[in-house]
Design a protein that fits this description.
Layout: H1 3-24, H2 29-33, H3 43-61, H4 78-98, H5 101-105, E1 107-111, E2 117-121, H6 122-146, H7 156-163
Antiparallel strand pairs: 1-2
Helix pairs in contact: 1-4, 1-6, 3-4, 3-6
């Protein structure tokens, strides 16, 4: 995978996150935090998990250590998550611009939240992050349907067709 492809998949990730955030932003706060019995109890908790994972991985790639998961309770409203997401997106943009082809193929060591040490090429880690976010966005779409809301189409093909 080369830099252009990584930038493309992260552009999709940003597009899908924004579309989902727009849909989530239409919810009443009670719906946003309602326990819907998924992997994470609520839409808020699921969105915070996506945000947290994207922040955590970026921090690893930037050489930061010791970061933990975000606490959903620290994000009581949609706006509190949206503001944090805007900041993260700017940080990703800076990182992607500075990325080199050589860096993508280099193995980068990291520790899981359980303290397990691993090493893997950067491009594989980066692809994992977008895949992880896609998985949890899908869960959020299901929760929106449980609330009788019309979720957006977040398929990669929809993104590519929009870009034509």
């Amino acid at each position: 995978m080369n830099k252009s492809q990584i930038i493309d998949i992260y552009s999709y990730d940003d597009w899908a996150n924004k579309k989902l955030m727009n849909a989530v932003g239409q919810l009443e706060n009670e719906e946003f935090v309602r326990d819907l019995s998924s992997s994470f109890s609520s839409i808020r908790d699921t969105m915070v998990h996506i945000l947290s994972a994207e922040e955590l991985w970026l921090s690893r790639w930037m050489g930061e250590h010791g970061r933990t998961q975000l606490n959903p309770a620290d994000f009581p409203t949609y706006n509190s998550i949206a503001e944090r997401w805007d900041s993260l997106r700017n940080n990703y943009d800076d990182f992607l611009l500075s990325l080199t082809e050589e860096a993508l193929t280099q193995e980068l060591s990291f520790k899981t939240l359980k303290g397990e040490s691993h090493s893997l090429e950067l491009w594989k880690q980066m692809l994992h992050v977008t895949n992880h976010s896609t998985y949890h966005r899908g869960q959020t779409v299901t929760m929106l349907r449980q609330l009788k809301k019309q979720p957006p189409s977040l398929d990669l093909i929809s993104y590519y067709l929009r870009e034509r």
